[in-house]
Amino acid sequence: MKSLFLVLAVLAFAFYSYGAHFLTTILVISFLVFFHELGHFSVARILGVNVQVFSIGFGERLCGWRFGNTEYRLSAIPLGGYVQLKGQSDTDPAHKNFDPDSYNTLSPFKRILILFAGPFFNFVLAFLIYLVLAFGGVSKLAPTVGEILPESAASGVLQKGDVVLSVDGASVKEWSDIGKNVKQSEMKLVVKRGNETLNLNLTPKVGESKNVFGESVKKPLIGITPNGDVVKVGFDGTETLAFAWSETKTAATLIAQSVPKLIFGDVPVKEMGGIVAIADITTKAAKVSFETVLLLAALISVNLGVLNLLPLPVLDGGHIVFNLYEMLFRREVNERVRVVLTYVSMAILLTFMVFTVFNDLLRIGGYYG
């Protein structure tokens, strides 16, 4: 009961701080976890494995019901969820069962299918969210020039308020389309200035900029900033599929690139975030618009997919590595080694979770400025 009282106290404080919008955070996180576990559940059932428990949340059981051989439950700590497969347990790595409907009787390849299904469902969900957004149109920064940096390539060529229509023949719908087509050679720009449509030439200059990780990089720059206007970008036909695929792939790539940067210190420690940061950002997004919530949900879903593929034994990626080892060497990983690695990775993951929560609280409290 102690964990339940603690969770209730945290939830009460969250609702007091954020108001009713915090309910959106609970629903988003719960649904993303549900969809991840649904992947494991679906493939396990297809392969004939008995799923004993399907839980949203960890810790004490709040409520639940039994359907068939599976108990569906809500648990006290809403920081994730799990499916309990017959013959498989992270809390008891040595536990095995060799009944016909057990996880242990499957081939390593079939086990990998079950393990990969969770992250895969997260990627599919993100793709579907982006697809829905594409059908309805996505809010983007308009390609309207705000400030022009002194002595930049755009100085004396572009003017504040110019709307960029195309770059070297490539149509420009929103602000990021400009940067995608900038190269280190003379470029032809078509811009709308007032009631006139002008054809302009300029040659970008190599300068220093910041990438998404805050690192300094040198790249060709025009030297302009957006004026902050927002435009609704629509997509037709196959464009919707292309947009959904591109956004999902881009999000997955950025998250995958960020992991080693965090490990090796290329990204400042203060930038690390956890469940508190996710809750804070999601709640603030709910105050902006439903579209913002969907965009954030897609990003978090991809994040769950990528992080669960990390090769830590308590995550799907670690179990996949163990099964790949068994496929390659025709023998299981030594049980003692597997148990030790599992408990060590549990300790690492728990330490990281505690650290990110503490880090989030410091950042939200303004400690980092």
Report a brief summary of the structure.
The chain is α+β, with helices and mostly antiparallel strands. The chain has helices at residues 2-18, 22-46, 108-136, 175-180, 238-263, 275-288, 290-307, 316-329, 335-364; strands at residues 51-67, 70-85, 138-141, 145-148, 163-167, 170-171, 187-193, 196-202, 205-210, 216-221, 224-226, 230-233.
Please tell me about this protein's structure.
- With 369 residues, this protein is α+β, with helices and mostly antiparallel strands.
- Helix content is 49%, strand content 22%.
- The chain has nine helices and twelve strands.
- The strands form five sheets. Strands 6-5-7-8 form a four-stranded antiparallel beta sheet, with no helix packed on it.
- Strand 5 (163-167) and strand 6 form a beta hairpin.
- Helix 6 (275-288) packs across helix 9.
- The radius of gyration is 25 Å and the shape is elongated.
- 27% of the residues are buried.
- The model has no long low-confidence stretch (mean pLDDT 87).
Averaged pLDDT: 87
Major beta-sheet overview = 4 strands, antiparallel
Helix content: 40-55%
The percent range for strand residues is 15-25%
| Tally of helical segments | 9
Sheet with the most strands: spatial strand order: 6-5-7-8
List the secondary-structure elements in sequence, H or E. Answer: HHEEHEEEEHEEEEEEHHHHH
**How many β strands by DSSP?**
12
How far apart lie the N and C ends?
Answer: 38 Å
Basic shape: elongated
Low-confidence stretches: none
What's the alpha carbon Rg, rounded to whole Å?
A: 25 Å
